[in-house]
Design goal:
Blueprint (H helix, E strand, L loop, with lengths): L1 E5 L11 H14 L4 E5 L2 H4 L4 H10 L3 E8 L4 H18 L3 E5 L14 H20 L3 E4 L10 H9 L6 E6 H6 L4 H7 L4 E6 L1 E2 L13 E2 L8 H10 L5 E4 L8 H16 L2
Parallel strand pairs: 1-2, 1-10, 2-3, 3-4, 4-5, 5-6, 6-7, 7-10
Antiparallel strand pairs: 8-9
Helix pairs in contact: 3-4, 4-5, 5-6, 8-9
């Protein structure tokens, strides 16, 4: 399995300086021994579509771009058009996975009933984008995520039941499965045959103190998740893909967060 790190927390402060911050991200995670990286698909806009500049920076720090991440806009034709652009860019920079995610809501209530119509709409769109991805040598993976229509166990299963396994895989996230009320190890075991990409992050033991459960996400080894169990399930299933550490925020700084998780992966899992 290959170890990756997510770069979007480097790109949140200086909108006029994203290119410099992107390189700083690559410099730091390379220094820590990560092999691959991921980022939002719209980084192509930071570089004005110049894939050569992105590829040159990746090569400079001996890194590969594993995955680009597309958020749906709840406009099927726009989402498909964006996928066309992103996939073309991905082929030029050598990325293999396109992560897909439903539109997030930020207003109350954060927890909402199952929206069967929206789940099925996302399934149909993901099948369509998945076929485009497959035809271009890219693997489309859907990421169940808090504050979206596909998050809880029932929603994930409904989505999977209505997507073609040959076209759409699953990016399962240890923390999102946990705050959705599932046991991460059992969730990975249940859907192992659909998983083609993995997000790793931990959950603070004091989950109940947070107004928004996503604020509980933390570095690997600090929280409650049984990563050894998740890793064992993946090995038993023959998974040989990317394990990508992804934090939505950094308690101290990006470098320290990435270092804590990298040390945990080495010490606990031998990676």
């Amino acid at each position: 399995m290959r170890i990756a790190y997510t770069g979007w927390t480097w790109l949140v402060n200086h909108k006029d300086n994203y290119v410099w911050e992107f390189e700083q991200f690559l410099r730091e995670v390379s220094d820590l021994g990560y092999e691959e990286v991921e980022n939002f698909a719209f980084i192509m806009d930071y570089f004005e579509g110049d894939a050569g500049r992105v590829k040159a920076l990746l090569d400079k720090y001996n890194l590969k771009m594993a995955n680009l991440y597309q958020h749906y806009k709840d406009d099927d034709e726009l989402d498909y058009e964006n996928a066309v652009k992103f996939i073309a860019f991905m082929k030029e920079i050598g990325a293999k996975y396109l992560n897909l995610q439903g539109t997030m809501w930020h207003d109350e209530p954060l927890e909402r009933p199952v929206d069967r119509e929206k789940v099925l709409k996302y399934a149909a769109l993901s099948n369509r984008i998945g076929r485009l991805a497959r035809d271009n040598g890219i693997i489309a993976c859907f990421h169940p995520h808090a504050q979206t229509a596909i998050y809880k166990e029932e929603e994930i299963q409904l989505f999977l039941d209505n997507t073609d396994p040959k076209l759409v895989s699953l990016c399962l996230d240890t923390a999102h499965t946990t705050i959705a009320g599932m046991d991460a190890v059992e969730a990975f075991r249940r859907w192992a045959d659909r998983i083609d990409y993995v997000h790793l992050k931990d959950v603070d033991p004091n989950l109940g103190q947070y107004e928004n459960p996503m604020q509980s996400f933390c570095e690997l080894g600090i929280g409650t998740i049984n990563f050894r169990g998740v890793y064992r399930v993946l090995k038993e299933a023959g998974y040989d893909g990317v394990l990508c550490v992804e934090l939505d925020h950094r308690p101290v700084c990006n470098y320290k967060s990435a270092m804590i998780s990298r040390q945990y992966l080495h010490n606990a899992l031998g990676l």
